[in-house]
Specification:
The chain is mainly alpha-helical and 143 residues long. The chain has one domain. It has five helices and two strands. Strands 1-2 form a two-stranded parallel ribbon. Helix 1 runs antiparallel to helix 3 and helix 4 runs antiparallel to helix 5. It comes from Pseudoluteimonas lycopersici. This is DNA lyase. Keywords: Lyase. GO terms for molecular function: lyase activity.
Length: 143
């Protein structure tokens, strides 16, 4: 499961669809509707939000908006599209780490997108996050 801190605009079609599906799964985990992935480290920051369900729904709303802008039909009835949540802090080092990870994926899977984005020095964060100073998150798995 990868719940990107990066703006979904940078994802290729496969990545955007995977993000949608994985975030819907994360929503089920937060609602207690599944036994799998309950301890997944990427859910920590959503669990720490004042309202975890609103935080994941706001995250989904931005993913769904990106999909709609691309002409995809991601079903907004699968989450509360009106949910609002305070932005979650994400460290600049975490964004940099994820950017490197995404660039490796795009280089293999979507060379045209890799070429489009490779020189970008400061990618935007997903709208659910606010960028703060700092390094890679403790929950991030090495590798």
């Amino acid at each position: 499961m990868r719940l990107w801190s990066l703006h979904p605009r940078y994802l290729d079609p496969q990545g955007l669809v995977a993000l949608w599906r994985e975030t819907l799964l994360a929503r089920k985990v937060l609602r207690g509707e599944t036994r799998g992935y309950r301890h997944h480290p990427q859910l920590q920051r959503f669990r720490e939000a004042r309202d975890p369900l609103a935080a994941i729904d706001a995250y989904l709303a931005a993913v769904q908006a990106e999909a709609t802008a691309r002409g995809y039909a991601f079903d907004p009835s699968k989450f509360d599209a009106s949910a609002r949540a305070e932005p979650i802090a994400v460290a600049r080092g975490q964004l940099k780490h994820e950017w490197s990870h995404l660039m490796c994926k795009l280089e293999v899977r979507s060379p045209e997108l890799h070429a489009r984005w490779r020189d970008l020095q400061r990618p935007r964060a997903h709208p659910s996050f606010r960028v703060v100073p700092g390094g890679v998150a403790d929950w991030e798995r090495a590798g």
